[in-house]
């Protein structure tokens, strides 16, 4: 299945052409909730990518071993285990990031991208292809979150790289004092996602 | 308050369908369609928009009387900014519309009337950009918007800069306020603000103040009487119909009256003050009735108005913000396509499936 | 059919077993860093609201007063000398519900500093509770017998513009904290007889129950 596709296409398709957020519109809930700053978006992207790559590899390895009738429960157990590991590791080693991402780390379990790739790709393809697919999709998701986080942080918080030692105010302290607050709130998340989806679609139509 | 080509003109004759039980029984209805040219109504978008603009002026003039230079500044800047942004959008995005259709002028005036008199220039500019670019032209320009542009901008500003959007000048402060003026002492809370903060005992404005506009509030919302005069003109010209304002205001009165009757006067505002206070008249007559964003059938408009009223009352009584008119109208704007879908009038000459089965 | 069911059980069981083992391993590895991080966060909140100290303990928090609940009380000592106590207070009277504030009370029963821990107030208005412009004015405040009040209620605390309700929360929390420390000033004066160093971690861990409300 899909063996005619070259390996690098398997890897790069998640960046733009099949971007999980802007094109496939998967995983919108954590994207809207955690893309408040660049750093949060990046952290969520890393966590999701880790889970995606690991679960794709394991599910691809087990694909001949898992009977069809229980494949969904089996996938969920695998995914939930990796998510719990990420949750524990992040709480232990990047505590402040874990605090600001809050409940959305455990909720990676129900992120449609992960189960979607497991069901649609990893359970039908070899280990290498599945790993590349997971990595590409994960990085595409992370890129989308970073773009959203950057826009929302600059406009809604007046800063960039908040949460890291490199924080600065791109539009100056005056703007930072009264930024476009709505952009960090849920309506701003929908607004940003909607505009970016429209933009990506427009680009796709042109090329 | 933008009109669209796909919204039916208000004055157009609507042929009433025959009673359902007669269809297919005895009288066989005939539908006569003559050859073109068809009768052309006098309604055009610029004409409607000019009337709306004129109808808003009494309330605008009242605010100029009470807030002087500040009101003039807010209304002028808002209208000019909206016209400027519209001009840029028309040139750059090539969406339908024209400056001469007055729609941007109406949006600008409405936006100004939805802002506090203390609004700084950059706040007004941000509002104009959101109203014209995001709410109007990104959705396809005149007639394509889902949400009322002026209200979208107001909510965007309210959530982003709550302090600037809730600094209400006392009536009678007519002097020019240079940027950075200390506003302490010349501002006051609105009646709804007092209600939300549990300071109802400090409420001094009575029903007559609310009617005339002798209290703090957004530039265009303070005088219920002036808004009614403008609304009467629009009703007379059949540019708006009575269903939405009546259902909207009636529901607010009913729900707040119920709360007042059960909860008592210490905790709740009397229903007639709820009706006169805040942006209810401005919203019910001039923004909920926007032809593009409200349902097209009579029943649909009643549901739309009642929904606006219920949401407004719920937000005012139990919500996080003191005033809920703008949130309520935007939420019901989002529900308009669904209302229109479920209340689609039966096509003339057809029977519903159930009636067809019994005959 | 039975054989198929048996295979399902076997496969799922095997996967679960492996997953459980892997999780147990990760849990063991991360257990200590997580506890340390949690304790550090609580300890940092205590440190920001109190003068310098080298030993911190925990005392039972008194019962609720009105809508204000005390979650934890951390007395602190420097070289055996009582320097003050940090009190974690939840006030239910916020615009959006509970507001949790850590209030530092110094040995003279004055407010040393306050720090906003969690809230659901309106962004841009009530959320300014944590900003130095508002929170800073509490430093060094003495609490009168009637309690701290905002200017609008006849007190001295400058409320945040447009957020009087949220500002009252902070005033009430500071009042409750100072009163709680005043009530037990005598018993807090001397540090408990445990070797320094062991007390902070234990005390802070004990205070964890209410930390993530």
Give the secondary structure arrangement, pairings included:
The complex is a heterotrimer of chains A (207), B (359) and C (213).
Chain A: H1 7-12, H2 28-34, H3 38-62, H4 71-93, H5 95-101, H6 112-122, H7 127-157, H8 172-177, H9 186-206
Chain B: H1 45-67, H2 69-93, H3 103-113, H4 121-136, H5 149-160, H6 162-165, H7 191-196, H8 207-212, H9 224-236, H10 243-263, H11 271-276, H12 280-287, H13 298-318, H14 325-342, H15 353-358
Helix pairs in contact in B: 1-2, 1-3, 1-9, 2-3, 2-4, 3-4, 3-5, 4-5, 5-14, 9-12, 10-12, 10-13, 13-14
Chain C: H1 2-49, E1 55-56, E2 68-78, E3 81-94, E4 97-106, E5 111-118, H2 132-135, H3 164-183, H4 185-188, H5 198-206
Antiparallel strand pairs in C: 1-2, 2-3, 3-4, 4-5
Helix pairs in contact in C: 1-5
**Gyration radius from CA atoms of chain B, angstroms:** 22 Å
Strand order in space, largest sheet of chain C:
1-2-3-4-5
Q: Secondary-structure element order of chain B, as H and E?
A: HHHHHHHHHHHHHHH
Order of helices and strands of chain C: HEEEEEHHHH
How many angstroms separate the termini of chain C?
49 Å
Number of helices of chain B: 15
Name the structural class of chain C: alpha+beta
Query: Uncertain regions of chain B: pLDDT < 50 for 5+ in a row?
Result: 1-26
Give the low-pLDDT segments of chain C. 195-213
What is the count of DSSP helices of chain C, taking H or I runs of 4+ residues?
5
């Amino acid at each position: 299945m899909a063996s005619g596709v070259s390996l690098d296409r398997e890897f790069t398709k998640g960046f733009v052409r099949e971007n999980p957020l802007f094109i496939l519109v998967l995983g919108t809930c954590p994207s809207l909730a955690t893309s408040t700053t660049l750093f949060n978006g990046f952290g969520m992207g890393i966590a999701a990518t880790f889970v995606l790559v690991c679960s794709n590899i394991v599910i691809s390895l087990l694909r001949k071993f898992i009977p069809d009738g229980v494949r969904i429960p089996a996938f969920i157990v695998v995914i939930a285990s990796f998510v719990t590991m990420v949750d524990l590791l992040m709480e232990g080693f990047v505590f402040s990031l874990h605090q600001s991402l809050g409940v959305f780390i455990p909720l990676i379990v129900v992120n449609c991208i992960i189960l979607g790739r497991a069901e649609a790709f990893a359970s039908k393809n070899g280990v290498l292809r599945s790993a590349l697919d997971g990595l590409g999709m994960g990085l595409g998701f992370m890129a989308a979150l970073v773009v959203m986080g950057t826009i929302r942080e600059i406009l809604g918080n007046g800063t960039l790289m908040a949460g890291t030692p490199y924080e600065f105010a791109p539009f100056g302290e005056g703007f930072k004092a009264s930024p476009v607050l709505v952009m960090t709130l849920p309506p701003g998340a929908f607004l940003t996602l909607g505009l970016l989806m429209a933009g990506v679609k427009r680009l796709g139509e042109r090329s | 308050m933008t009109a669209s080509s796909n919204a039916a003109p208000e004055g157009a004759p609507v042929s009433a369908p025959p009673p359902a039980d007669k269809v297919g029984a005895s009288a066989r209805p005939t539908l006569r369609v003559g050859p073109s040219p068809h009768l052309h109504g006098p309604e055009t978008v610029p004409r409607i928009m000019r009337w709306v603009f004129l109808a808003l002026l009494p309330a605008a003039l009242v605010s100029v009387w009470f807030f002087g230079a500040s009101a003039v500044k807010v209304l002028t800047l808002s209208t000019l900014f909206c016209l400027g942004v519209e001009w840029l959008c028309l040139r750059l995005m090539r969406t339908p519309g024209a400056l001469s259709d007055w729609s941007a002028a109406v949006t600008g005036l409405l936006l100004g009337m939805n802002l506090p008199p203390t609004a700084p220039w950059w706040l007004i500019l941000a509002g104009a950009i959101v109203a014209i670019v995001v709410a109007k032209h990104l959705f396809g320009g005149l007639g394509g918007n889902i949400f009322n542009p002026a209200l979208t901008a107001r909510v965007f500003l309210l959530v982003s800069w709550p302090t600037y959007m809730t600094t209400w000048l006392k009536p009678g402060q007519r002097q020019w306020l240079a940027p950075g003026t200390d506003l302490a002492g010349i501002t006051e809370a609105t009646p709804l603000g007092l209600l939300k903060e549990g300071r109802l005992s400090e409420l001094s404005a009575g029903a007559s103040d609310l009617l005339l506009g002798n209290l703090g509030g957004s530039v265009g919302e303070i005088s219920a009487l002036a808004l009614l005069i403008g609304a009467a003109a629009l009703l007379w010209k059949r540019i708006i119909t009575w269903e939405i304002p009546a259902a909207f205001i009636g529901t607010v009165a009913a729900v707040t009256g119920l709360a007042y009757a059960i909860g008592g006067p210490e905790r709740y505002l009397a229903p007639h003050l709820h009706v006169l206070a805040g942006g209810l008249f401005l919203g019910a007559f001039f923004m909920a009735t926007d032809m593009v964003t409200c349902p097209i059938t009579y029943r649909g408009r009643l549901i739309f108005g009642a929904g606006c009223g219920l949401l407004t009352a719920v937000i005012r009584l139990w919500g996080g913000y003191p005033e809920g008119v703008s949130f309520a109208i935007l939420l019901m704007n989002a529900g308009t396509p669904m209302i229109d879908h479920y209340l689609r009038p039966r096509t003339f000459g057809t029977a519903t499936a159930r009636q067809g089965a019994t005959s | 059919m039975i054989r198929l069911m048996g295979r399902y059980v076997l496969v799922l069981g095997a996967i679960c077993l492996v997953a459980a083992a892997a999780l147990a391993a990760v849990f063991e590895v991360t257990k200590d860093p997580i506890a340390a991080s949690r304790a550090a966060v609580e300890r940092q909140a205590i440190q920001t609201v109190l003068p310098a100290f080298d030993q911190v303990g925990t005392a039972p928090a008194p019962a609720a007063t009105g809508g204000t609940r005390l979650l934890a009380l951390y007395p602190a000592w420097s070289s055996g000398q009582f320097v003050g106590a940090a009190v974690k207070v939840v006030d239910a009277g916020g615009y959006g519900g509970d507001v949790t504030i850590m209030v530092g009370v110094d040995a003279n029963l004055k407010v040393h500093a306050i720090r906003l821990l969690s809230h659901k107030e309106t962004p841009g208005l009530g959320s300014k509770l944590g900003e130095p412009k508002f929170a800073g004015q509490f430093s060094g405040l003495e609490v009168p017998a009637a309690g701290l009040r905002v200017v609008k209620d006849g007190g001295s605390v400058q409320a945040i513009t447009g957020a009087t309700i949220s500002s009252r929360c902070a005033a009430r929390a500071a009042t409750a904290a100072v009163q709680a420390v005043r009530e037990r000033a005598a018993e807090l004066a001397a540090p408990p007889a445990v070797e320094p160093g062991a007390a902070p971690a234990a005390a802070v861990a004990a205070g964890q129950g209410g930390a993530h409300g």
